[in-house]
Amino acid sequence: MSARRKRTKKSPRRGGRVAAGLLVFGLVLLVALLGYGVWLDRVIRTQFEGKRWALPARIYARPLELYPDLRLSPAELVQELERLGYQKTARLERPGSFNRKDSATVEVYVRGFRFWDGSEPTRKVRLAFSGDRLQRVSAEGGGEAPLLRLEPLEIGRIYPTHHEDRVLVRLSEVPPALVQGLLAVEDRGFYEHWGLDPRGIGRALWANLRARGVVQGGSTLTQQLVKNYFLTRERTLVRKVNEALMALLLERRYSKDEILEAYLNEVYLGQQGPRAVHGFGLASEFYFGRPLRELRLQEIAVLVGLARGPNQYNPRRSAARALERRNLVIDQMLAQGYVGEQEARAARAAPLGVRPDAGFANSPFPGFMDLVRRQLVRDYREEDLRSEGLQIFTTLAPPAQAQAERVLARRLAAIESARRVPQGTLEGAVVVADPKTGEVLALVGGRDPQAPGFNRALDARRPIGSLVKPAVYLSALLPGEGFSPVSLLQDQPVRVKSAPGQVWAPQNFDRRSHGEVTVQTALVRSYNLATVQLGLQVGLRKVARTLTGLGVTADIPPYPSVLLGALELSPFETAQMYQTMAGLGFRIPLRAIREVTGPDHKPLKRYGLSVEQAFDPAPVYLLDTLMMGVLREGTGQRPYRRLAGSPRLAGKTGTTDELRDSWFAGFGGDRLAVAWVGRDDNKPTGLTGADGALEVWVDLMGGLAPAPWDPPVPAGVEWQWVDKTVGQRLEQDCPGAVRLPFLKGTSLPAGSCGGDTSPLDGLFGEG
Q: What is the dihedral of CA 450, 666, 407, 433, to 10 degrees?
């Protein structure tokens, strides 16, 4: 009895110890929670304030510059606008639309764009044409616009390693309907709650029960941002608790507008292969091909619906579900008073409007993009290209690129059909550049421009054959060498020791020798024997120096066979060589990049014009003038006749041993193009330069319509009337007299009018 009483008396002390233990535990737990809260707050501040989204580098084509007297037809302008995603409308109500009023007038509501050197404002303009010339550019409200730049076409991106992609938008740039739709469907009390919304949870639960499906979410926009921004997608109690705590802390630290803007850029809205589409800015381009600010109500509602489940409501895969979800968003916006009944009815009746193609999985111009990447890695780290949001403005001209791709594929198929060889046997490559600036306007790495892998324009290094001959003749025409366009050469058999016990004995293509011929005739007719004789007289070392001066960086074999093209170059390297010729001796490195800007749109590096005078213009002028004869009366005359108006163009055919490679390189005043046709297995094609590559080149130039080659006559050049067959000076009125350029001071023997001369062919104009 006493023992029981003793134990009973001790129980209050035990209860006190338990209470004290619970109090201590509670205090420890409270301190731990406070510490955890402080740690979470630090995580939020560190990541949110220091957050720098890894943004891909965006790569653009050249912007189309519009100014009076520009050679551009209304149809070509419309094509350019359609490439940029402009919509043809009866009335210009929003940027990104146009209206062709009549055959000579186009009205455009131009999108604004920030270039490296300033901004192009959003405005309405009227463009008046006269034939294929832009006559006048007028801005809305009257007044002439001397220069207008359309925004450039995006042609590719360099993505972060984790394959996230986004286009950042500011809240001020977002259409009000987008915010209204999100509030109506995802978080009605966004601007009232502190991160959690119990009433919203209850309201969503009731709405979902009535609809027997998920029509509203219980999570606030802040919670969704926390889940996407800071946490994983695992469904656990710990993650939900963290989500709630971090939502409260985020609301305490930052304004509603800051939170909403981050949500608009972070939310996951789609997937294409390994590439994740984040943010409404990119989703607008991905699904509709237009900037977010240009979307209509029904299109905005599609994007809002995707926030609930981008896979479930994907409009490309599940159009019916996407349509149902879109209309629900519109209904909710109507119920909340964000839109009127008439506007809602029109939006529900509209189609989804999603573009059918799969977004932007690959660059439409992989060959050109290959060149861009190679030039970028010389100046930028790979990680910067993948994460810093750089804007790279290139030199690509989409119309020229489209023309080159179309011509190459069509012409190769026609050649195969005509020669009865299996389709797909032949391959080819094309490079188009502006010889005055060195800007690469188009580059095609194969007959299938979208095929991945080997880029023949950059990496197919093949013997260039007779394309090397202009370098031989330029070496001879340099001052002090004693040769002129009508100097006489011996087109006779030649034998040269090439190695111990070996003799090199070249032949002409027709297996004949032609005796005594002039320099002009030998080049125009591409006589091998005369060229070798000339090259040996000038010297192999001088020819090698000329090739180097023209821009050849490859090793030049110290053998006589190099005089006939035993020199392996890619089409791109060949284009560099011919640019120096087209530039009258001024060498300009070919480039694919104009400008690079940072995420703040400020220039980082300017890829300006770099010019080096490699040769005096006078002898190059002589050479280029003679190369015009290649097309007018030489090896290239047959395909050349297809060009309307017989424009003043210069170039050279190239054929390699056993007819393995077919080449042509040529230029006008503002366009240089190199074409190569061959086989990947290096087997014979049966094609000369004129049969294959020149056919491609002529079709290409016919579409590009280059300006004529007609530069000012250099100071060291004079024109003389001559008999071009025998190299004698004639009077202007003599039968057969033609006018050719010579270096000043060149003395020619006098001829008589009675000789057997060629008829006046009009090849050369007035100097």
A: 40
CA angle 549, 555, 558 (to 5 degrees): 90
Place of tokens 């053998």: 559
Rounded distance between C-alpha atoms, residue 473 and residue 534, angstroms: 8
Name residues whose C-beta falls within 8 Å of residue 237's C-beta, 6 or more positions apart in sequence: none
Residues 306, 313: contact at Cβ < 8 Å? yes
What radius of gyration do the chain's Cα atoms show?
A: 36
Tokens encoding 289: 């091909």
Q: What is the 3-state secondary structure (H, E, C) of 182-208?
A: HHHHCCCCCCCCCCCCHHHHHHHHHHH
Residue 39 has what pLDDT? Answer: 61
Buried b (16+ CB within 10 A) or exposed e, 480-501: ebebbbbbbbbbeebeeeeeee
The reply to whether 718 belongs to the active site is no
Q: Is 615 left (phi over 0), alpha (psi -120 to 50) or beta?
A: beta
The CB-based long-range contact list for 157-161 (8 Å cut-off, 24+ gap) reads 157/56, 157/57, 157/58, 157/59, 157/360, 157/363, 158/56, 158/57, 158/59, 158/373, 158/385, 158/386, 159/56, 159/275, 159/386, 160/54, 160/55, 160/56, 160/386, 160/387, 161/386
Residue-wise pLDDT tens digits, 579-592: 999 999 999 999 99
pLDDT means per 10 residues, the chain with 767 residues, are: 48 65 63 62 62 75 93 93 91 91 91 89 92 90 82 84 73 91 90 78 61 61 78 61 76 85 88 82 89 92 92 91 94 94 94 76 80 85 72 94 96 94 94 96 93 89 96 96 94 85 89 94 96 96 97 92 95 98 96 88 77 96 96 89 87 94 96 97 94 96 92 94 86 88 90 51 38
Catalytic-residue membership of 186: yes
Instruction: To the nearest 10°, report the CA torsion of 262, 265, 266, 270.
Output: 160
Question: Global pTM?
Answer: 0.81
* Catalytic position from the list 97, 219, 466, 526: 466
Rounded CA separation 53/50 (Å): 10
Going along the chain from its start, the domains and CATH numbers come out as 63-151 (3.30.2060.10), 159-349 (1.10.3810.10), 716-767 (no CATH)
Choosing from 151, 154, 186, 573, which is the catalytic residue?
Answer: 186
CA-closest candidate to residue 153, choices 393, 381, 414 = 393
> Which residues, 6 or more positions from 673, have their beta carbon under 8 angstroms from its beta carbon?
404, 430, 431, 432, 433, 575, 665, 666, 667, 697, 700, 701, 704
